[in-house]
């Protein structure tokens, strides 16, 4: 006998010891053995049988701890024995559960064994061995044996356990066993078994002897059974439910159970249950139609059974609305009516409707009355509050309304329904006497306010010249880096739609909230929920409290300064949390500290969003209160108070010479910076606050003494030298440097020390620190004051540390480095050195493409050309000799062309001029050199404009070159030169365009494209030529080669003259020629980018018709182009399409479906290969969905959206990767729906990760598979991070068990990859430069 076997035999002998401690310790040691790697029991059937006998016998031990440990041993034991022993173990445990007088222990043992057994495709649930990465992955044989044992041994016994003639106690344990079987092995049950269990469980529900606890568990079991029911059986069961509702005279208890079952089904199988709501929902709505309430009189005995039925009906309606919002749209009016009716339902309280709240403004005594303690209510001796459960009905009604707001915010906000019907009732119910209900009402009001902002589409007047939110692509990236201090009162927002309704409700709402905040007996939870609501209002309306702030200011100030009386009070009882809602849940756990933090946030938001004249009357009391909070020892309060200080400082310094209280704030902030006892987060916020204070008080008088200002600057410099606060100090210095206005604001010594220190940080490895330091240097050099205070030594030293950054290794740092270098060169006090020239040449040689980096390089080169004669000569020689044709032609030509013009050519001392490049074109034998010369001339012509001495003939002559590259380069150069001199070039181009030469027409289209693209920088208007170009484009650009270029030209011409050309586009969209329609569709895509906001008003009435017609085009390729256009609209003009997503999204969903008729088989040699002609359209559809997810998710029904995402997880590689990206976002945006779909997601993820490439797979296939696996693991991490905790424990219909098993499998099989990705994500978060001040 082996050593482990001998040890186990010894432990078995101790199980018979009369001392319970010996029995306990032997089981404990046995449990440790079973969790180990050795598996002696597999090879010794006799020993394993004795172990099984001993452990099962211990289940009847008189000692409870021994029994519990025996149950614990069964989990790993069932994984160690032979698979033939699984069935006998289940049989013995089931028999024990049937025959034992106390079946709870054997039933618990059964559940433990069931949950531990391996399932087909799932890992065994086994505790990891200490110090080992080993995980048991079951073979298919063991999993099949487990499933067979469940079917043959346990299921028949379980049917007996559930039989109605067994005593009531057995029922609850047997139902729990059934639930565990369904959660773990529900998929193996056939329709016959499911039907038998449904009959048994329905018998339990109908059995009057069953307790409410048993019936609740039975409802859960029934919902799980329906998950695995065939469609026919499910339809039959739901038909039975419908018939049960139709039976007259059913007791309220039975009706309540039926209603609970419908709600459970909605949560468990929303997709399959939704179609049945058309018949089921009316029965549930009939239970809350209010007829019985109308017949009830005040003073009647409480109808507890009726109230419980109403509660169940409202809970079911909430499940219907949250899980099946599409199917519930037809019942919207009835659902809202029920929610509103029963939100006011308080039959035992005379003034339950809160209608007296209309007259609240004439006396403070009204504000203080009763404080919701219910004393008067208790005086009625007929019944106690224990008999009154109507508050549960009101709470469920509030939750129902909250769900309707969440799921129907798009249309019901726009038509005013919510603010017309729901909001006034919510405000009335702020006076609710029951704490739980009041918190839910406040949470619902907060949800309504937040949704108002999410679904708000601002209307912009056509005359308002507001630029697009995205910068024009050709705009300099470093332009205007001087911060402009906002004037809050200059342009008040014009509120429309739902926001206007909210603003009109604020006075009434404020009076009700002020009563809550001033009530002496109001709980902390209610106060915090009220503050959260106010915070949402200020955030959404960007103010909104102008007229009502005096109502709140006293309690706000009391809470801010931490008055003991105000921050004392009761909190929500732990055992009765508010019903749902994140907001209410947060308020339910309110403490004095959490309330104070919320109030500080509110104060900061009030100061940030209101004009100074609104807050100024209260500043004398408000500022000392905030300063007191800054001095708090609790770091969270102090940190938030410092954040509030920043907003107060901004408010105080809006007007010159109006910075009262600055000294008081300065002292509090400085104290936190220099103190050695404060938390790092507090110190960082204080540093940033000091930066804001010093920057906002620049050039103001009577605000901050010179001594204090210098002390503040010195402390920032000191913190810059400290390793823990360098990044925050650099950002604070950036603010100070950006806003310094006079030389009194800064000192020369301080500027030199700061520049030296920031320059030294550029050599550090921390990327965030280097970025912050560069920003600070950029602001210092860009500011005239800071630049003048820089010594020559500091300038040269700065150039030395910047040159190593002029590489493509880090584009995030390259842009600011180039901008600083240009600003230094512009001072004419920094010489262009050889290392600088070499760095620029190296950058030009390696850079590819366009963008802000190239614009910064060109700006630096232009400055060198204008300022430094020796420098421009050296740079030109370097570009010609060291770079030349080695770099990308367009990039090198742009740099050389700009230097040629800014340096003045040969007249400016350069070694080359325009004529030299003309000679190069005519004499060069190398096509690359010829292309470069052509592009240089084009760039020079663009910059010189009409003074450019070269005519179009030079470029046109190269159209006939034999090379493929030279004609294209000549065409682009012709367009660039033409953009600089439209009157000289464009007539020639248009004349040649009308000649019937196909190749030349294609080249001339490229020239036109360049002219139109650069029309915004041209001094000559091209509108006189626009109609001629428009006609030429539609007559010429019809073949595949020229259609894409022509479409871009048409789109950009439409932007130039939308009044004339948008109607033309509409006309051509109906053309019978598919190529014309395709060009129009492509052209529309360009109209969504680089346009002014005033253009939106022209596009708004027609954009939906445009897109709808395009997406329904009969040509496949045109539909793909239409989806690309919709994608562009989603990225650039989401506000135009968001109100119409209900019309557009179904079209996109339709194109995302796989069409079998488009999949064909082609013969490739001896092999057959499948080709999917619909793949590209589906890719475009999913790309469009991704764009809508990023910009317009608030207008999307997450259930329908999720269905297409999950379908995409089974599509081709690119679509799967895109769906994984969408899932990572949906876990945050639609967490509830993600939790509802995790099991479906886990099935798709497991299929992806289980796939093995063929042995003969090529490298590209292996790389694509590795990318997909990595993408799937990233999505898995995101889903588990956001939803994993919510899936632990009991969930509706056992939801999430598949996911938890999948995640355990992933951790076992892909543990190294998962840990690497988690570390990568955490490193990315920590390295992103996140700091305290970024929250301001």
Secondary structure elements and their pairing?
Blueprint: H1 3-14, H2 20-34, H3 40-43, H4 45-58, H5 64-80, H6 86-99, H7 104-116, H8 140-161, H9 168-185, H10 191-206, H11 212-227, H12 231-246, H13 252-268, H14 270-273, H15 277-286, H16 291-295, H17 304-323, H18 332-343, H19 364-368, H20 375-378, H21 390-414, H22 417-428, H23 435-454, H24 497-518, H25 524-541, H26 549-560, H27 564-567, H28 582-588, H29 592-609, H30 612-615, H31 619-630, H32 635-652, H33 662-674, H34 680-696, H35 706-720, H36 726-739, H37 748-761, H38 767-782, H39 784-789, H40 792-802, H41 811-826, H42 834-846, H43 852-867, H44 869-883, H45 889-902, H46 914-923, H47 927-944, H48 953-956, H49 965-980, H50 982-993, H51 998-1013, H52 1023-1036, H53 1040-1056, H54 1058-1069, H55 1074-1086, H56 1093-1099, H57 1103-1111, H58 1116-1132, H59 1134-1137, H60 1141-1151, E1 1159-1164, E2 1167-1172, H61 1175-1191, H62 1198-1208, H63 1213-1229, H64 1231-1250, H65 1259-1287, H66 1297-1309, H67 1311-1326
Antiparallel strand pairs: 1-2
Can you offer a commentary on this structure?
With 1336 residues, the protein is an all-alpha fold. It contains 67 helices and two strands. The protein has a two-stranded antiparallel ribbon with strand order 1-2. α34 (680-696) packs parallel to α36 (726-739). The protein is globular. The model is unreliable at 123-138, 352-384, 458-492, 572-585 and 1324-1336 (pLDDT under 50).
């Amino acid at each position: 006998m082996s050593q482990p076997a001998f040890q186990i035999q010894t432990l078995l002998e101790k199980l018979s010891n009369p001392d319970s401690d010996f029995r306990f310790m032997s089981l404990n040691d046995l449990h440790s053995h079973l969790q180990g790697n050795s598996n002696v029991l597999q090879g010794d059937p006799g020993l394993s049988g004795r172990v099984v006998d001993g452990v099962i016998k211990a289940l009847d031990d008189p000692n409870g701890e021994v029994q519990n440990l025996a149950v614990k041993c069964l989990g790993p034991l069932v994984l160690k024995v032979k698979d033939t022993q699984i069935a006998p173990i289940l049989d013995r445990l089931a028999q024990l559960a049937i025959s034992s007088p106390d079946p709870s222990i054997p039933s618990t043992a059964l559940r433990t064994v069931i949950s531990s057994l391996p399932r087909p495709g799932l890992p065994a649930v086994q505790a990891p061995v200490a110090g080992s990465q080993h995980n048991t992955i079951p073979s298919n044989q063991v999993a099949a044996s487990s499933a067979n044992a469940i079917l043959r041994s346990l299921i028949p016994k379980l049917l007996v356990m559930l039989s109605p003639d067994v005593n009531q106690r057995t029922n609850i344990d047997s139902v729990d066993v059934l639930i565990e079987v369904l959660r773990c092995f529900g998929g193996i049950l056939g329709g016959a078994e499911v039907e038998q269990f449904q009959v048994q469980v329905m018998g339990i529900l109908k059995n009057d002897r069953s307790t409410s606890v048993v019936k609740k568990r039975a409802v859960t079991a029934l919902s799980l059974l329906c998950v695995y029911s065939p469609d026919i059986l499910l339809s039959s069961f739901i038909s039975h439910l419908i018939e049960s509702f139709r039976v007259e005279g059913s007791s309220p208890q039975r009706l309540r159970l039926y209603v609970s079952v419908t709600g459970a089904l909605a949560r468990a199988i929303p997709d399959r249950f939704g179609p049945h709501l058309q018949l089921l929902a009316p029965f549930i709505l009939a239970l809350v139609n209010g007829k019985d309430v109308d017949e009830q009189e005040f003073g009647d005995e409480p109808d507890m059974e009726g109230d419980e039925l109403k509660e169940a009906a409202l809970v079911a309606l909430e499940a219907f609305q949250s899980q099946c919002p599409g199917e519930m749209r037809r019942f919207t009016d009835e659902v809202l009516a029920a929610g509103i009716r029963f939100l006011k339902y308080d039959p035992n309280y005379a003034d339950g409707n809160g209608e007296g709240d209309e007259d609240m403004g004439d006396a403070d005594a009204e504000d203080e009355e009763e404080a919701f303690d219910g004393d008067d209510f208790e005086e009625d001796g007929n019944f106690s509050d224990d008999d009154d459960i109507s508050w549960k009905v009101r709470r469920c009604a509030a939750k129902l309304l909250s769900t309707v707001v969440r799921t129907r915010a798009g249309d019901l906000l726009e038509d005013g329904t919510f603010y017309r019907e729901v909001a006034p009732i919510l405000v009335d119910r702020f006076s609710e006497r029951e704490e739980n209900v009041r918190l839910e009402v406040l949470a619902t009001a907060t949800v309504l306010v937040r949704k108002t902002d999410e679904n708000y589409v601002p209307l912009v007047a056509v005359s308002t010249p507001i630029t697009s939110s995205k910068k024009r692509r050709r705009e300099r990236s470093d332009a205007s880096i001087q911060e402009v201090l906002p004037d809050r009162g200059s342009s008040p927002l014009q509120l429309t739609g739902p926001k206007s309704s909210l603003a009109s409700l604020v006075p009434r709402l404020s009076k009700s909230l002020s009563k809550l905040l001033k009530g002496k007996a109001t709980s902390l939870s209610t106060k915090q929920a009220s503050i959260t609501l106010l915070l949402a209002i200020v955030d959404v309306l960007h103010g909104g409290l102008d007229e009502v702030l005096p109502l709140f200011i006293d309690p706000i100030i009391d809470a801010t300064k931490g008055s003991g009386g105000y921050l004392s009070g009761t909190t929500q009882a732990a055992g009765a949390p508010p019903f749902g809602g994140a907001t209410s849940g947060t308020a339910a756990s309110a403490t004095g500290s959490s309330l104070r933090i919320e109030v500080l946030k509110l104060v900061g938001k009030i100061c940030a969003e209101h004009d100074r004249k609104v807050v100024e009357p209260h500043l004398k009391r408000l500022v000392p209160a905030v300063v007191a909070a800054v001095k708090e020892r609790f770091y969270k309060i102090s940190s938030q108070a410092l954040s509030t200080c920043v907003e107060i400082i901004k408010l105080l310094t809006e007007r010159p010479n109006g910075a009262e209280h600055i000294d008081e704030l300065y002292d509090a902030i400085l104290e936190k910076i220099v103190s050695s006892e404060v938390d790092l987060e507090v110190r960082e916020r204080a540093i940033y606050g000091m930066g804001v204070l010093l920057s906002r008080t620049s050039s103001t008088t009577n605000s901050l003494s010179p001594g204090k200002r210098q002390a503040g600057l010195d402390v920032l410099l000191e913190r810059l030298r400290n390793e823990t606060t360098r990044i925050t100090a650099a950002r604070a210095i950036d603010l100070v440097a950006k806003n310094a206005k006079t030389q009194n604001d800064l000192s020369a010594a301080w500027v030199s020390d700061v520049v030296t220190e920031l320059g030294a940080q550029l050599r550090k490895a921390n990327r965030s620190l280097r970025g912050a330091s560069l920003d600070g240097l950029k602001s210092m050099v860009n500011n005239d004051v800071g630049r003048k205070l820089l010594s020559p030594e500091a300038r040269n030293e700065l150039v030395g540390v910047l040159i190593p950054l002029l590489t493509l290794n880090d584009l995030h740092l390259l842009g600011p480095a180039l901008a600083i270098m240009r600003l230094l060169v512009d001072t004419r006090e920094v010489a262009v050195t050889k290392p600088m020239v070499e760095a620029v040449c190296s950058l030009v040689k390696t850079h590819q493409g366009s963008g802000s980096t190239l614009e910064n390089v060109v700006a630096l080169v232009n400055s060198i050309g204008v300022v430094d004669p020796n420098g421009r000569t050296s740079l030109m020689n370097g570009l010609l000799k060291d770079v030349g044709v080695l770099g990308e032609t367009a990039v090198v030509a742009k740099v050389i062309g700009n230097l040629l013009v800014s340096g003045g050519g040969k007249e400016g001392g350069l070694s080359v001029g325009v004529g030299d490049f003309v000679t190069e074109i005519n004499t060069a034998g190398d096509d690359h050199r010829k292309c470069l010369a052509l592009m240089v001339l084009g760039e020079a012509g663009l910059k010189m404009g009409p003074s450019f001495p070269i005519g179009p003939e030079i470029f046109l002559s190269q159209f006939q070159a034999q090379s493929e590259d030279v004609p294209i380069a000549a065409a682009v150069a012709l367009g660039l030169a033409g953009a600089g001199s439209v009157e000289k070039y464009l007539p020639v181009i248009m004349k040649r365009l009308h000649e019937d030469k196909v190749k030349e027409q294609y080249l001339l289209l490229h020239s036109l494209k360049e002219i139109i693209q650069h029309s915004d920088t041209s001094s000559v208007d091209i509108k006189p030529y626009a109609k001629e170009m428009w006609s030429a484009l539609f007559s010429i650009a019809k073949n595949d080669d020229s259609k894409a270029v022509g479409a871009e030209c048409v789109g950009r011409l439409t932007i130039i003259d939308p009044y004339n050309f948008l109607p033309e586009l509409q006309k051509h969209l109906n053309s019978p020629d598919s190529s014309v329609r395709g060009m129009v569709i492509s052209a529309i895509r360009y109209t969504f980018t680089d346009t002014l906001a005033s253009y939106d008003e022209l596009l708004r009435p027609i954009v939906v018709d445009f897109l709808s017609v395009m997406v329904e085009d009969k040509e496949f390729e045109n539909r793909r182009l239409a989806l690309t256009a919709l994608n562009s609209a989603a990225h650039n003009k989401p506000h135009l399409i968001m109100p119409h997503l209900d019309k557009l999204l179904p079209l996109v969903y339709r194109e995302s479906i796989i069409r079998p008729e488009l999949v064909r088989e082609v013969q490739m040699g001896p092999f057959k290969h499948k080709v999917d002609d619909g793949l590209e359209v589906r890719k475009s559809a999913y790309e469009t969905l991704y764009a809508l997810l990023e910009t317009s998710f608030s207008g999307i029904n997450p259930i329908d959206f999720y269905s297409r995402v999950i379908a995409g997880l089974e599509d081709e590689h690119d679509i799967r990767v895109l769906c994984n990206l969408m899932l990572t976002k949906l876990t945050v945006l639609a967490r509830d729906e993600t939790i509802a779909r995790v099991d479906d997601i886990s099935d798709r993820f497991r299929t992806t990760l289980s796939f093995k490439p063929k042995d003969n797979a090529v490298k590209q296939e292996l790389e694509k598979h590795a990318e997909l696996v990595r993408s799937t693991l990233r999505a898995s991490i995101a889903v588990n991070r956001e939803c994993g905790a919510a899936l632990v424990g009991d969930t509706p219909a056992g939801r999430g068990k598949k996911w938890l098993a999948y995640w355990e499998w992933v951790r076992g099989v892909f543990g190294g990859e998962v840990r690497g990705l988690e570390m990568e994500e955490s490193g990315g978060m920590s390295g992103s430069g996140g700091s305290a001040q970024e929250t301001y």
